[in-house]
Amino acid sequence: MYGHQDMEVPDCAQPRIAVTLDVSYERHIVHNDPARVLNELAVKQDRLKYLAHVVDGSRGDAGKRAQAEHLLRLEAAAYDWHEDYRPEWRP
Predict the structure, then answer these.
(1) Based on the number of CB atoms within 10 Å of its own CB, is 73 exposed (0-12), middle (13-18) or buried (19 or more)?
(2) Radius of gyration of the chain (CA)
(3) Cβ pair 85, 73 in contact under 8 A
(4) How confident is the model over 6-33, as pLDDT tens digits?
């Protein structure tokens, strides 16, 4: 049961996972499925580790290192609001 009504979130393969007082909260929960979000974070961590490895590698071509550094800056740009963000990380 979602909210005060018996309804399902359209286009959702998930079973009913929560009962709240507001349907918008339920849509948020379904849209931000915790398992999917954790999977996306794990993939992002792997990508960042790989790019950092390429940038820090003593061997390899300079073009690959420059490209990896640029991609790391783009990833970091999403967090320019954070207090730990450094201006030198800007793309």
Answers:
(1) middle
(2) 20
(3) no
(4) 455 556 665 555 566 677 777 787 788 8
Question: In sequence order, which residues have a C-beta less than 8 Å from that of residue 15 and are 6 or more positions away?
Answer: none
Could you tell me the two tokens for 42? Answer: 């794990």
Terminal C-alpha separation, the chain? 46
Same domain, 75 and 52: yes
Who has greater pLDDT, 88 or 24? 88
Chain-centroid distance of CA 55 in Å reads 22
Cα(18)–Cα(6) distance, integer angstroms: 12
For the chain, the domain total comes to 2
Residue that has been written with the tokens 């990508």 in this structure? 47
The C-alpha atoms of residue 68 and residue 20 are separated, in whole angstroms, by 44
For residues 77 and 89, the answer to whether their CB atoms sit within 8 Å is yes
Domain membership of residue 10 as a residue range? 1-32
